[in-house]
Amino acid sequence: ARNTSAKVEVPPHSRRARESTERRWPWVVVCAALTLLLLAQLGWAERDVLIRNPTTGSWLRSSCAALGCELPLVAAPQRFELLASNVQAHPSVAGALMISARIRNNAAFAQPWPVLKITLSNAQGQRVAMRRLQPDEYLADDTILQRGVAPGASAVGLLEVEDPGDKAVESIP
Q1: CB contact set of 7 (below 8 Å; sequence gap of 6+)
Q2: Could you give the CA distance from residue 158 to residue 64 in angstroms, rounded to a whole number?
């Protein structure tokens, strides 16, 4: 009778390679998870820049819409344009002015309503009055405040201020 049970020996170098691979995979998983966590932290820290960017911003907006989340509004005040402004005596309140201003959001994304700075100067350029109005001071509707100004949209604001005197001329930078 012939002995058919042959013993197969695994070379020592292949056994070490297999054991090394078996011990390495948890480290690979941990390193990949930590890398993803770092990327998430960087994305969170730079979220305003990423949302403002046309490429990443559109991708983030479409991804967030698909997931049912909402991106925060980011401000780029330099992308607002003053289209027109007008100052006139208030039609029904003595000693007050009615100021109208029309602005447009030239950004590719919705922005929070801007802080309006109104400066009234005399004919010689000396400042007679100046005021900064926060959005909640000139908008009463919280829903409109939260939505912000849509990309490419124009808005008209009517402001009532105290008249500083006859020699004031308007300036809304």
Answers
A1: none
A2: 34
- Which stretch of DSSP H or E encloses residue 156? strand 154-162
Residue 52 has a pLDDT of 80
For residue 5 the two structure tokens come to: 């049970």
Q: Which runs of E-coded beta strand occur in 10-153?
A: 80-89, 96-105, 116-121, 127-133
Read off the pTM.
Answer: 0.62
Alpha-carbon gap, residue 98 to 92, rounded angstroms = 10
Exposed/middle/buried for 149, CB within 10 Å: 0-12, 13-18, 19+?
A: buried
Total residues belonging to the chain: 173
CB atoms within 10 A of CB 120: 23
Three-class secondary structure assignment of 105-130: ECCCCCECCCCEEEEEECCCCCEEEE
Cβ atoms of 80 and 111 within 8 Å: the answer is yes
